[in-house]
Design a protein that fits this description.
The protein has 430 residues and is of the alpha/beta class. Helix content is 42%, strand content 13%. The protein folds into 2 domains: 240 residues, 3-Layer(aba) Sandwich (Aspartate Aminotransferase, domain 2), CATH 3.40.640; 176 residues, Aspartate Aminotransferase, domain 1 (Alpha-Beta Complex), CATH 3.90.1150. It has a 7-stranded mixed β-sheet with strand order 1-7-6-5-4-2-3, with helices on both faces. The chain is globular and about 85 Å long. Bound molecules: pyridoxal-5'-phosphate.
């Protein structure tokens, strides 16, 4: 199949064009879904191109090809979930091999690596990837796989893919990058020297919060052959219908990532300037410790950000409850905006000490900023901060009535014009 990436097309062109006009039966522009589990052999000497859908499926192959093109790989395996993709890559390890991984990686990754290592499937070393001597540590450990997740969750720290891939290569290790938080529109790790990219396609790739799926994209034909073999062997391949939906989602991925990024940038700036906000974690802010690196390594920052509020858990709760356009839910990367409280939700499996070591306080709030209108989202964040601030500063009858007054004004009109009509006392609390 043609590889659009080799023809130097931009990602937006690849995303729209990939897999079009491939239907030889009816010339449908968009490829049909092949739900069939099995395919007919003409006779014993003539095998069909596809035999059985665990091993191979035309719809799944179109998605695999799209991901190969977008990530600049040589081959991809589409899996039933992001965790299935991560699990698949671990088949490259034998029991004496060492994998190094960041201690602040995705919770499911942490649990999988840890439980396999405890059973002796491979050896595991957790590292602080933001330590100054991270390269020396990797050179000393001589691992088989260096696992990278950048930006990290939920603090949005950035790892230098180019630098660590070179270090890994110097000791004969493969570099694997979990690219879920940015998608290939945000960054292309294989071009920076990584060997394998994994995705939870559940997130930005599909982008509509209606599929759980994953993918592994390889820079080497040998790795791809091995992992495709293991995917068939272990049965982790993805479904045709999910593949169809993700391919459909990919058509708008470049547009979506642009809007996620713009919206998140504006919200990060508003949060950063507000007195109720202690600290914002977003690589697009110049104050972020990895701002320069993010600018160099990434095309976009996408929609993930987190921040700490001044106040206690009640302030956090009142802020979250007063948001109208952010749904309190886990997951990320969909068109809709979501808010999440990492210490009691996504990262609840970590004990308190591990949470604090990872920088996850009870005041930390995470946003997956969607692609709604930017001004509406910003206004929603400002009004929720204002109400939470009033509740915090005046936790008595006066506060309740001030809040009721503010809410009435807000309910009556758009936030901008509402702000102009606030009484001086309320305006002071804005
Ligand atoms: C969600 C997620 C995963 C796991 O993917 P699933 O599709 O839920 O199995 C892995 N890595 C990251 C960074 C994720 O956000």
């Amino acid at each position: 199949m043609s590889n659009l990436a080799n023809k130097d097309f931009a990602a937006a062109t690849i995303a729209v064009q990939t897999g079009l006009n491939t239907d030889k039966n009816h010339q449908s522009v968009v490829a049909p879904i092949y739900m069939a589990s099995n395919y007919k052999f003409e006779d014993l000497n003539n095998r069909p191109a596809y035999e059985y859908s665990r091993s191979g499926n035309p719809t799944r192959d179109l998605l695999a090809n799209a991901l190969t093109e977008l990530e600049y790989g040589v081959g991809s395996v589409v899996t039933s979930s992001g965790m299935a993709a991560i699990n698949l890559v671990l088949n490259l390890l034998s029991k004496d091999d060492v994998i190094v991984a960041p201690q602040d990686c995705y919770g499911g990754t942490y649990r999988l690596f840890d439980s396999f290592a405890q059973r002796g499937v491979f050896k595991l070393v957790w590292l602080d990837y933001y330590a100054d001597d991270i390269e020396q540590q990797i050179q000393k450990i001589k691992p088989s796989i260096v696992w990278i997740e950048t930006p990290s969750n939920p603090l949005l720290r950035i790892t230098d893919i180019k630098k660590l891939s070179a270090t890994a290569k110097s000791v004969g290790a493969r570099t694997v990058v979990d690219n879920t938080f940015l998608s290939p529109i945000g960054q292309t790790p294989l071009k920076l020297g990584a060997d394998i990219v994994v995705h939870s396609s559940t997130k930005y790739l599909n982008g509509h919060s209606d599929v759980v799926s994953g993918a592994v994209i390889c820079a080497s034909a040998d790795d791809h052959e091995q992992l495709a073999w293991w995917a068939n062997n272990t049965g982790v391949t993805g479904s045709p219908f999910d593949s169809y939906l993700i391919l459909r989602g990919i058509r708008t991925l470049p547009l979506r990532i642009k809007q996620h990024s713009k919206n998140a940038q504006s919200i990060a700036e508003v949060l950063d300037a507000h007195e109720l906000v202690k600290h914002v974690n977003f690589p697009g802010l110049p104050s972020h410790p990895d701002h320069e690196l993010a600018n160099r390594q990434q095309n976009y920052n996408a929609g993930m950000l987190s921040f700490e509020l001044n106040g206690d858990i009640n302030t956090v709760n009142s802020f979250i409850k007063n948001l109208q356009l952010f749904t309190l839910a886990e997951s990320l990367g969909g068109t809709e905006s979501l808010v999440c409280h990492p210490s009691t939700m996504t990262h609840a499996a970590m004990d308190e000490e591990a949470q604090l070591t990872a920088g996850i306080t009870t005041q930390l709030v995470r946003f997956s900023v969607g692609i709604e209108d930017k001004a509406d989202l910003v206004a929603d964040v400002i009004q929720a901060l204002s109400v939470a601030n009033i509740e915090k500063n005046t936790p008595n009858a006066a506060g309740r009535s001030a809040k009721a007054g503010l809410k009435k004004v807000l309910d009556d009109d758009s936030v901008d014009s509402a702000a102009c009509r606030l009484s001086p006392a309320l305006a002071a609390l804005w």
